[in-house]
Q: What sequence folds into this?
């Protein structure tokens, strides 16, 4: 689960395994595999970082430690 904020500031937890796409429109729009859509305050990079951090803490083996988020990140 990752923490995200609705545009009105309401905090909620989201199952990151349900995210199908994240778009910048310029608002950040999350589309889930069940068809639900959320517009949130966080940026695309914030969402990506939150997912990677959650998966690392949860012990997902598909997110190796030490791999930069973007080419050139350290």
A:
């Amino acid at each position: 689960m990752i923490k995200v904020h609705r545009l009105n500031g309401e905090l909620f937890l989201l199952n990151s395994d349900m995210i199908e796409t994240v778009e910048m429109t310029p608002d950040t729009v999350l589309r889930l595999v069940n068809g639900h859509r959320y517009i949130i305050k966080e940026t695309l990079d914030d969402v990506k970082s939150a997912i990677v951090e959650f998966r690392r803490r949860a012990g997902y083996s598909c997110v190796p430690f030490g791999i930069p988020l973007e080419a050139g990140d350290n």
